[in-house]
Amino acid sequence: MARGQEYVRAKAQEALDATDGNRHEASLLLRVWAEADAKLYKALTAPLLGNLAALAVQRVVAPQTQVGRQRKPIREAELLAAIGSRNGQSMSSTRTVGAPPQGSVRHKQAVTLLASAYRRKPAG
Q: Distance between CA 52 and CA 58 in Å, rounded?
């Protein structure tokens, strides 16, 4: 383990001891200590620095590529035409024609058992 991470581990244990094992309070205490202790702050942030740098660059580049840009709103006439079209897909358009396949005996027994369990609800 790197020397800086040993220091972080020791300070984290110290924070846990100071808060009687309360993780939330220990993390808050460790954060306060890091603001006052440059060595602890650097050791805590060092493993994340590469990702933070990449994120900063991505945020600068993102407005140029705009992933979440607004789409052109669909006009009502287009929407109504799509809904009323016989050529458009419906919920059942991907199903095959005909009845669904028969379930196995075990499946039928399970469904029957479930149905009977719901029928026999105690009056209360």
A: 10
Contact call for residues 4 and 43 (beta carbons, < 8 A): yes
> pTM for the complete prediction?
0.46
Q: What is the CA radius of gyration of the chain?
A: 31
Whether the predicted pLDDT of 98 surpasses 80: no
What's the whole-number mean pLDDT along residues 33-61? 92
Angle, vertex CA 119, rays to CA 114 and CA 122, nearest 5? 115
CA 31 to chain centre: 26
In whole angstroms, give the CA distance from residue 41 to residue 120.
63
What is the distance between the alpha carbons of residues 49 and 42, in angstroms, rounded to a whole number? 10
CA 82 to chain centre: 33
| Residue 88 binned pLDDT confidence (cut-offs 50, 70, 90) | low
59: tokens are 């945020």
